[in-house]
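From the methods appendix. Each design record in this collection lists the tokenized structure first, followed by the designed amino acid sequence. Records were kept in a plain field format so they could be parsed without special tools. The example shown here is representative of the layout used throughout.

RECORD:
FOLD TOKENS (452 positions):
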């Protein structure tokens, strides 16, 4: 396969302004790019362009935590209050018992899309942790998994307290420099020194993608999603974990035991047709064609990042984009690359059945809500229809915070979601049924408890 022509072809089809693709196979890196970094300026995307890798940052933060574990400075299973005595969320029991393992495996149950802007100062993470005091539980501690961005900024603050240094500085000293990363940073003033992509979003379903109103989320979101990197640097980090924690120059940056622990399942994901099958410590784990893979997705404001690693095939693939329908590009590219280079077939997600299941959809109707998103559903013609509304601080940067959605049943638990004006589809899962009524909706790896 010609990676350059295939990437260009798919990005044009899927309205992606600019993208970079990197493939690491048997130690060799191939990097290609297409399009522009900013539709307003027309500057060309190159392989060394910096993109926001979003939540792919989380395994980077988790890696530093594991270094501190090895040094005996923290434990995954000690309460967070051991390191942050004043830590508090709305539930007193969770405040007292939640651990780093809960945070890094998304099993704390804390309502986690908390994007509080605590300023640009060096105390932003300290202030962010203080702002968590009112966060409620989506599920009991350790009972299931729900994606928790908040947990990683709390972990980032623990890193600061233990090391006596800012999270940004620790990342440079413990990861970026030892790995020889020349095109990686965390702060916008650093990103300005490089060819750096800007995000693009749709302001209305029937309009083309346009430049985002802001470039990135607040500084306090750093440990959950603020690393900017080129595809080559992202692959160098992936290779660290492929090589048992060893850097390109032979230094043992992370022990082989810690690498294994990060890739060991901690919790099953209730919706296995979404981001993955299980969560490790920082990593998402995938079961593809009898192969165990790890990786992570990342989404920031108009930018999208996808990383998958097949360690037994010595293969890692990263795709970075600045808008458009990235999931469609990823699906096509990764399917072809993993089949051609590793003989791995990516599972086909469930499709609508020819005969819809006989379900009483009135039992699925209602309101499912968590911080930042409220979903309202009602039965209509054998489907569920309704809205997904972005709320809170995120609504301020959304051009249209209310999306119309349609859910088509596959079976009792699995539904296919189509948003108005979006050619891509998603899968969600309903679970924890009581008298046939689901108490949770699981979407984008987040648990939405029923509130009505």
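DESIGN:
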């Amino acid at each position: 396969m010609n990676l350059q022509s295939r990437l260009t072809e798919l990005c044009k089809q899927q309205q992606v302004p600019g993208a970079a693709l990197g493939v690491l196979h048997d130690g060799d890196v191939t990097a290609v790019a297409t399009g522009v970094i900013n539709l307003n300026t027309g500057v060309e995307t190159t392989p060394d362009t910096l993109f926001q890798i979003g939540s792919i940052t989380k395994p980077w933060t988790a890696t530093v935590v594991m270094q501190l574990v090895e040094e005996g400075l923290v434990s995954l299973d000690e309460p967070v209050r051991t390191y942050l005595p004043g830590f508090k969320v709305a539930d007193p029991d969770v405040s007292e018992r939640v651990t780093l393992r809960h945070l890094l495996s998304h099993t704390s149950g804390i309502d986690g899309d908390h994007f509080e802007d605590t300023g640009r100062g060096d105390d932003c993470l300290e202030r962010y942790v203080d702002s968590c005091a009112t966060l409620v539980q989506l599920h009991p501690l350790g009972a299931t998994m729900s994606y928790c961005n908040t947990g990683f900024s709390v972990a980032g603050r623990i890193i600061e307290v233990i090391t006596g240094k800012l999270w940004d500085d620790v990342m440079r000293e413990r990861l970026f420099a030892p790995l020889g990363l020349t095109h990686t940073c965390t702060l916008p003033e650093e990103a300005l020194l490089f060819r750096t992509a800007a995000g693009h979003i749709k302001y209305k379903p029937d309009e083309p993608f346009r430049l985002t109103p802001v470039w990135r989320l607040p500084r306090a979101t750093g440990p959950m999603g603020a690393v900017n990197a080129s595809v080559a640097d992202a692959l160098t980090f992936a290779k660290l974990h492929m090589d048992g924690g060893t850097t390109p120059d032979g230094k043992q940056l992370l022990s082989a035991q810690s690498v294994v622990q990060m890739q060991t399942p901690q919790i099953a994901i209730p919706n296995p047709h979404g981001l993955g099958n299980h969560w490790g410590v920082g990593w998402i784990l995938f079961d593809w064609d009898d192969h165990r893979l790890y990786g992570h997705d990342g989404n920031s404001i108009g930018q999208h990042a996808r990383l998958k690693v097949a360690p037994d095939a010595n293969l890692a693939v990263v795709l970075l984009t600045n808008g458009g329908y990235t999931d469609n590009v990823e699906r096509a590219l990764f399917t072809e690359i993993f089949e051609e280079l590793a003989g791995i077939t990516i599972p086909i997600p469930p499709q609508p059945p020819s005969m819809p299941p006989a379900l009483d959809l009135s039992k699925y109707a209602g309101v499912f809500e968590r911080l930042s998103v409220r979903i309202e559903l009602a039965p209509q013609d054998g489907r569920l229809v309704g809205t997904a509304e972005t709320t809170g601080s995120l609504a301020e940067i959304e051009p249209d915070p209310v999306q119309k959605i349609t859910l088509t049943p596959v079976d009792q638990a699995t539904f296919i979601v189509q948003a108005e004006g979006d050619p891509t589809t998603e899968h969600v899962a309903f679970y924890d049924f009581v008298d046939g009524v689901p108490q949770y909706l699981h979407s984008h790896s987040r648990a939405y408890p029923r509130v009505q």
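APPENDIX NOTE: The chain has a mean pLDDT of 96.
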